[in-house]
């Protein structure tokens, strides 16, 4: 009876803790500032090249003619433009590959701050290319901007997952996706003819990249580093405690530090795991496969194809070509609203329903869009159905597949494994991005409107896999999520850790000893101001 009362008391205390979780000022500023100078710029650079495409091609042709005395042929011009657009993904791949040693040495926050060097350098190169008469500067700027995006899309989700309480980890993680969408929408707005979408003004579209970068570089240094990084990798209990206090908005953070130390005891190791070591670790085999599937589907599910078809569909529905850029803003607005909706409900509905449901809805609307595009020349109202399907596909993508893969990558892996995991996720992400850009024109040429059935098939495969494999990670610690996968990996966590990291528990025991002494001396209870 006494045990039952104690159990009920513990449950009430846990529920009380969950209700008391607040979005502290430091947590909000860190997430918004981090995303504004990182994922926002990724989204912005996805859309910013669309509006001035004609002017940039004209600039390429004029530069070529000044140098060589004749106009560039159509094939070479198309090749130069394709390189300009697709080389962004190559830079992203480079950034994803080099991010692991950078976040290990500099930390999560400092990596985001230093990454602005790439963004500023890229912005200067691209914005001054017209003045210098060098299209090579624009291409070089695009690849450097890709490096910035590759680093930030790994470092930002890592940082957000490590500074947030588990009760709001999903909502905070969705900030990455929300700012990608806001970046895409901002690129569309600034590309309007009334703003920078003119022949004399298009360099300002690239110069604007400096603004978010400088804002992040000024504000982020005054915010704490990831407390998990400080505690488990730098073994600095005092700084980790201060970071927890600022991010959680309370003085007593003994429970949070003990939770992190418990993870450290399970790991028996705080040394960083390489990509090869991670791939060989049986205890995370299905986590890695799941990350590869979600990141692959994130790029291969067909959203890029939607952007390709949008202008044609709007034109065929009777919308004036001069009006299309303004109508296209609706796609960016829907994308942003859907991402915000996902961030608001992810902690209530969970990751599984939003991710699987998003892919499921995309399957339905891709199928309807295929029928609509095939028959729209015979029925006058079908182009409007096509427009609706485009907006519905974008919304379906953004409520789940558009952001949750980044959240899951941060949730699946222990501290020592996380940088290598994000390197794998980033590599898959950018390779898939490049593959879509390279292969889609051939798929579209061969299958015409039926190409969307290919994407529906990819969404179906992803949703089926996730339905059978993905556990719900809402409100779970990193250790609890690892336990959820342990049965599928056919290994107990204790056996696996002892097998891979024998006799390396000293550092975590020393941290625990230091923390216990701190509690005994009343330091943690009093707090550090």
UniProtKB/TrEMBL annotation:
GO molecular function: D-glucose transmembrane transporter activity
Keywords for the protein's UniProt record, in alphabetical order: Membrane, Transmembrane, Transmembrane helix, Transport
Region (Disordered): 500-529
BP GO annotations: D-glucose import; dehydroascorbic acid transport
Residues of the Major facilitator superfamily (MFS) profile domain: 31-474
PROSITE patterns: MFS, SUGAR_TRANSPORT_1, SUGAR_TRANSPORT_2
Membrane-spanning intervals of the chain: 21-42, 79-100, 112-133, 139-160, 172-190, 202-223, 288-309, 324-346, 353-375, 381-408, 420-441, 447-470
Localisation per UniProt entry: Membrane
SUPFAM superfamilies: MFS general substrate transporter (SSF103473)
InterPro entries: GLUT (IPR045263), MFS_dom (IPR020846), MFS_sugar_transport-like (IPR005828), MFS_trans_sf (IPR036259), Sugar/inositol_transpt (IPR003663), Sugar_transporter_CS (IPR005829)
Pfam families, per the entry: Sugar_tr
CDD domains membership: MFS_GLUT_Class2
Chain intervals with Basic and acidic residues compositional bias: 500-509
Membrane association type: Multi-pass membrane protein
Origin superkingdom: Eukaryota
GO cellular component terms attached to this protein's record: plasma membrane
Record family assignment: Belongs to the major facilitator superfamily. Sugar transporter (TC 2.A.1.1) family.
Name this protein carries in UniProt: GTR9 protein
Organism annotation: Myiagra hebetior
Gene: Slc2a9_0
């Amino acid at each position: 009876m006494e045990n039952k009362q104690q159990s009920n008391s513990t449950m009430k205390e846990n529920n009380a803790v969950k209700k008391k979780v607040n979005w502290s000022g430091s947590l909000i500023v860190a997430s918004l500032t981090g995303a504004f100078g990182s994922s926002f710029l990724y989204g912005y650079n996805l859309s910013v090249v669309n509006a001035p495409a004609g002017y940039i091609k004209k600039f390429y042709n004029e530069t070529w003619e000044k140098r060589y005395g004749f106009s560039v042929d159509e094939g070479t011009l198309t090749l130069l433009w394709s390189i300009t657009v697709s080389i962004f993904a190559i830079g992203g791949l480079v950034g994803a590959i080099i991010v692991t040693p950078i976040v290990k040495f500099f930390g999560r926050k400092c990596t985001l701050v230093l990454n602005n060097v790439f963004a500023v350098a890229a912005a200067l190169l691209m914005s001054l290319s017209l003045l210098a008469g060098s299209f090579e500067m624009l291409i070089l700027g695009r690849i450097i901007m890709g490096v910035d995006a590759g680093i930030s899309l790994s470092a930002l989700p890592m940082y957000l997952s490590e500074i947030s309480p588990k009760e709001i980890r999903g909502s905070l993680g969705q900030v990455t996706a929300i700012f990608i969408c806001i970046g895409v929408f901002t690129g569309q707005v600034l590309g309007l003819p009334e703003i920078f979408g003119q022949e004399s003004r298009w360099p300002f579209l690239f110069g604007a990249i400096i603004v978010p970068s400088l804002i992040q570089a000024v504000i982020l240094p005054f915010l704490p580093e990831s407390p998990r990084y400080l505690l488990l990798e730098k073994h600095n209990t005092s700084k980790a405690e201060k970071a927890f206090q600022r991010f959680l908005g309370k003085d007593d953070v003994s429970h949070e530090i003990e939770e992190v130390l418990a993870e450290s005891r399970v790991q028996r190791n705080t040394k960083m795991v390489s990509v090869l070591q991670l791939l060989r670790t049986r205890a995370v085999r299905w986590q890695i496969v799941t990350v590869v599937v979600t990141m692959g589907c994130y790029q291969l599910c067909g959203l890029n194809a939607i952007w390709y078809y949008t202008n044609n569909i709007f034109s065929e529905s009777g919308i004036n070509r001069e009006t299309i850029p303004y109508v296209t803003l609706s796609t960016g607005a829907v994308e942003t609203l859907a991402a915000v909706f996902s961030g608001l409900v992810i902690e209530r509905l969970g990751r599984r329903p939003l991710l699987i449901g998003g892919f499921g809805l995309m399957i339905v609307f891709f199928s309807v869009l295929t029928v609509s595009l095939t028959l729209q020349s015979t029925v006058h109202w079908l182009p409007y159905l096509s427009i609706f399907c485009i907006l519905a596909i974008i919304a379906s993508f953004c409520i789940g597949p558009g952001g949750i893969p980044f959240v899951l990558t941060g949730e699946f892996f222990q501290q020592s494994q996380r940088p290598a995991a994000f390197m794998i996720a980033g590599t898959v992400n950018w390779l898939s991005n490049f593959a879509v850009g390279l292969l889609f024109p051939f798929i579209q040429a061969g299958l015409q409107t039926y190409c969307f059935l290919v994407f529906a098939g990819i969404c179906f495969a992803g949703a089926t896999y996730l339905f059978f494999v993905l556990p719900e990670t809402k409100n779970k610690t990193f250790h609890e999520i690892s336990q959820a996968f342990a049965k599928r990996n056919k290994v107990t966590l204790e056996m696996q850790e002892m097998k891979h990291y024998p006799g390396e528990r000293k550092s975590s025991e020393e941290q625990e000893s230091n923390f216990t002494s701190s509690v005994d001396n009343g330091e943690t209870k009093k707090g550090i101001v």
